[in-house]
Amino acid sequence: MVARPAALLLAVCWLAASPATAEPYRLAPFKDDLFAYKKILDSAYDGDMLLVEYNRQRDLVQRDVVERLRVDPKYVSLETEAVEAELSLDANGRRVRYVAVGKTDSEVKAIVIFLHGNGADREAGANDWIHGGNFSRIKNLMMRNDGLYISADFADFGRRGTADVKALLLHYANQSPEAAVFLGCASWGGRICWRLLDDPETAPRITGLVFLDSQMDDDFIRKAPSLAPSERPAIHISNNAGDWIVGHKAQVDFFRRLKAAAPDYPAHFVLFSGGIHGISLRMTDWRETLNWMLEVKGR
Q1: What's the rounded Cα separation, in Å, for the pair 97 and 151?
Q2: What percent of the chain has pLDDT over 90?
Q3: How many separate domains does the chain show?
Q4: 141 by DSSP, 3-state: which?
């Protein structure tokens, strides 16, 4: 029998005892063939800024059975109904109502909180059939990947509404302290997102923000360069070239100035080549966006 060198024996023993490296948490594919971006028309900032084709006939008329009201059923999975509930949280002397999909009484790996825009309510982010089925997809992505999805009501788009969402965020983030926390900020809902990012209690808990046809906060550009990498939540911005309510030019300008001030800031911009206000809620690829955020934040 040939004797093995002691160093080799130690190495063999160490390898045998060492656990396999865990794969990073990522959202597994779900209906990617239907929701992935069909055609990239242009790219800049090493792929952080994309111009994506929007074809009204394909992406709206042919996708919906009843235009804007009911998508083709192939875009929807109602399996989430088994873990979907109408809930409320008492906070700030008010009852905050919300729709939750996933585990609400135990730890999860990711939390997505959607904030609707002006004139809408929690149903805007909970209805499986509108917005091209895109919210059916994020509900399924969370359910199938040990996550929690919340679409919330709140008192207003000012400080009271911010306090409502803050209470929800902290309630579930404290319940799952290791979870990645994402905010989906639609139109005026973005005002609340920026306030939460400026709040010392909530800012450290936020992994990433997804701005959908929303407003930007120019003051953040001033702060960004001084933020440590751990203090920089990933920022995704989606809008379309035909949005005349919020408009995309100010958002493009915000993105470019942010990249100029902090070139390594984890920011991503997707501009759709057409559409009107709200099209980003239909067209944004939730899985690609959240997985990018998880990657750039080292989760």
Answers
A1: 9
A2: 89
A3: 1
A4: helix
Q: Which residues pair with 95 in a beta bridge?
A: 90
Report which of 151, 153, 150, 139 is spatially closest to residue 97, judged by C-alpha positions. 153
Question: Read out DSSP for 237-279?
Answer: EEEETT--SS-SHHHHHHHHHHHHH-TTS-EEEEEESS--TTH
Between CA 60 and CA 62 the distance in angstroms is: 6
B/e letters for 64-81, b = 16+ CB within 10 Å, e = fewer, are beeeeeebeeebbbeebe
How many Cα atoms within 13 Å fall on the side-chain side of residue 187? 18
Confidence (pTM)? 0.92
**Can you give the CATH number for the domain in which 70 is found?**
3.40.50.1820
Question: For the chain, which ranges sit under pLDDT 70?
Answer: 1-21
Q: What are phi and psi of 173, to 5 degrees?
A: -65, -35
- For residue 260, give both structure tokens: 């100029």
Q: Which two three-digit tokens encode residue 24?
A: 């990073």
The pLDDT value given to residue 20 = 60
Do residues 65 and 284 make contact, with C-beta atoms less than 8 angstroms apart?
Answer: no
5 is a domain residue: no
- Residue 246 in any domain: the answer is yes
Q: Which domain holds residue 292?
A: 28-296
Average pLDDT, the chain: 93
Dihedral sign for Cα atoms in the order 161, 212, 253, 241: negative
Of the candidates 268, 257, 197, the one whose C-alpha atom is nearest the C-alpha of residue 235 is 268
Asked, for residue 129, whether it belongs to a domain, the answer is yes
How far apart CA 292 and CA 49 sit, in angstroms, is 13
CA quadruple 118, 35, 299, 252: dihedral sign: negative
CA dihedral 258, 263, 265, 267 (to 10 degrees): 60
* pLDDT tens, position by position, 177-199: 999 999 999 999 999 999 999 99
For residue 226, being part of any structural domain is answered with yes
